[in-house]
Design brief:
Protein name: N-acetyltransferase domain-containing protein
Number of strands: 5
Order of helices and strands: EHHEEEHEH
CATH class: Alpha Beta
InterPro entries: Acyl_CoA_acyltransferase, GNAT_dom
Number of domains: 1
Strand content: 15-25%
CATH superfamily: Gcn5-related N-acetyltransferase (GNAT)
Pfam family, one: Acetyltransf_7
Structural class: alpha+beta
Organism: Deinococcus aerolatus
CATH architecture: 3-Layer(aba) Sandwich
Distance between the termini: 47 Å
């Protein structure tokens, strides 16, 4: 990865957002995330739903490409809340395996954090190596997340 041709794009999305992420770029980002999230990933349909939420209700998409190849992507969603819940949730971040350890994740995170308004929350598995990056960027572990997952659409 050479920084000479690396291009980081940030799109603020939502009904009042000035930026427009082309549908083909949205699909490229969804496909990239589906491939490169590895064991932390979700179904392609869930990633596409997250991107649709960002487009319709607010959020951002930030991605890095070099010579037309996607090398990293981040998606945030606006929560519609503030104070008791952060205004943004970082839903997805992934970098291409060939770029890991070279600072691209940090560059993407810094771009995202410089371009979102309000606080940001994210979820990270305790054994995920990216946890150290988040801590260096100022994220703290305030809560233990617990979930009740209902089966069958209850």
């Amino acid at each position: 990865m050479t920084t000479q041709t690396l291009n980081i794009r940030n799109y603020r999305l939502g009904p009042d957002a000035p930026d427009t992420l082309k549908p083909e770029d949205r699909q490229r980002v969804a496909g990239f995330l589906h491939t490169h999230l590895d064991e932390y990933g979700d179904a392609l349909e869930d990633i596409q739903a997250c991107l649709a939420y960002a487009q319709e209700r607010g959020g951002s998409v930030t991605y890095a490409e070099e010579d037309g190849e996607l090398l990293g992507a981040v998606v945030t969603n606006r929560t519609g809340m503030s104070g008791f819940i952060p205004e943004n949730i970082l839903v997805y971040i992934a970098v291409h395996g060939k770029t890991r350890g070279r600072g691209l994740g940090k560059q993407l995170m810094e771009t995202v954090l410089a371009n979102v308004e309000g606080n940001v929350a994210l979820h990270v598995e305790p054994h995920n190596p990216a946890k150290k990056l988040y801590e260096r960027l100022g994220f703290t572990n305030k809560y233990l997340e617990m979930r009740l997952t209902r089966s069958g659409g209850e």
